[in-house]
Amino acid sequence: MVEVVSEAWEAAAAGGSLGDDHIRRLRLAATDATWRAASAVDLAYHAGGGSSIHDASPLQKVFRDVHVATQHGMVAERTYEPLGRLALGLPTDTSQM
Questions:
Q1: Threshold 0.85, pTM exceeds
Q2: Between vectors from CA 19 to CA 18 and to CA 20, what angle results, nearest 5°?
Q3: What whole-number distance in Å separates Cα of residue 14 and Cα of residue 55?
Q4: What is the 3-state secondary structure (H, E, C) of 52-93?
Q5: Is the dihedral of CA 48, 50, 56, 60 positive or negative?
Q6: Residue 5: its H or E element
Q7: Stretches in the chain below the pLDDT threshold 50
């Protein structure tokens, strides 16, 4: 994530616009980071056992919040398909990206 954002930042700071490759890589990095975060929270949630389900549990709140984030259109699992198509140079509808 840091590498991809740094490269995009440098391109933008140099006065250029971000190209399709920058945008694709930023979306892929954001999607990957979101799903890795959700996976880490899932591990902690399950390790917490039954106490994790209670409203007073910080794990329950974090579990809920991270899974809300995974459903956002910018990072939802469905973004992998158009990002993969772009990476392979296949015709891709980017109107919803």
A1: no
A2: 130
A3: 48
A4: HHCCCCHHHHHHHHHHHHHCCCCCCHHHHHHHHHHHCCCCCC
A5: positive
A6: helix 2-13
A7: none
Q: Which domains does the chain have, with CATH numbers?
A: 2-87 (1.20.140.10)
The neighbour count for residue 24, using CB atoms within 10 Å, is 20
Q: How far, in whole angstroms, is CA 89 from its chain's centroid?
A: 22
Structure tokens at 12: 């933008």
| Token pair belonging to 66 | 């991270």
For the chain, what percent of residues have pLDDT higher than 70? 98
Residue 19 Ramachandran class (φ > 0 left, ψ -120 to 50 alpha, else beta): beta
DSSP string, 23-45: HHHHHHHHHHHHHHHHHHHHHHH
**pLDDT (0 to 100) of residue 97:** 66
Residue whose entry in the numeric block shows the structure tokens 């106490």? 51
